[in-house]
Amino acid sequence: PALFMENARKGSIVSRANSIGSTSASSVPNTDDEDSDYHQETYKESYKDRRRRAHTQAEQKRRDAIKKGYDDLQAIVPTCEQQDFSIGSQKLSKAIVLQKTIDYIQFLHKEKKKQEEEVSTLRKDVMALKIMKVNYEQIVKAHQDNPNEGKDQVSDEVKFNVFQGIMDSLFQSFNASISVTSFQELSACVFSWIEEHCKPQTLRDIVIGVLHQLKSQLY
């Protein structure tokens, strides 16, 4: 009986010890789980900060690019550099820079069209001068082959004046009818001009008119 009572007392002590240990273990906080939650929250905040910072940098780059574009326009467009008395010394707004740029581009388009028209006119002049040159060379060659023919009748100056008057009259119609935009249009216009303005009757009327004009000048 004494041994039985001693074993029962030891079992009771061990049971109470186990009960106290389990209670203590349950009351201690789980530090591993808290560390995991803390690191996860820190990572989330760090990701948001990096994303916000990247967005801010991208937005700043976009604004810098726009500002540089407007600065380049002000440097390129001459009217943006001129003093605007209605604004004074204030910096030009973006709306004014854009409007002045549009006006300048429209001005350049008008100038380009004007220059193209001038080039077209000069091409017609060159074409007419080439025709006059060929005709004059033929006249000179014919005169060289027969130097005494008609020498006592008409001087070279009068011949040239007649020729010049005829060519001037032909060039007026040539300049009004010929288009030199392309080779096809030039070819078509030349043939139609020859058919319409170089008929024998038309040339006869031109020559008679030039002779009457020179006759009135000489006499």
UniProtKB/TrEMBL annotation:
Residues 37-48, 56-65 have a biased composition (Basic and acidic residues). GO terms for cellular component: cytoplasm; nucleoplasm. The keyword DNA-binding applies. Residues 15-30 have a biased composition (Polar residues). GO terms for biological process: positive regulation of transcription by RNA polymerase II. Residues 105-132 form a coiled coil. Residues 15-65 are annotated as: Disordered. The keyword Hydrolase does not apply. Transcription regulator. Forms a sequence-specific DNA-binding protein complex with MAD1, MAD4, MNT, WBSCR14 and MLXIP which recognizes the core sequence 5'-CACGTG-3'. The TCFL4-MAD1, TCFL4-MAD4, TCFL4-WBSCR14 complexes are transcriptional repressors. Plays a role in transcriptional activation of glycolytic target genes. Involved in glucose-responsive gene regulation. PANTHER family: BASIC HELIX-LOOP-HELIX ZIP TRANSCRIPTION FACTOR, MAX-LIKE PROTEIN X. This is Max-like protein X.
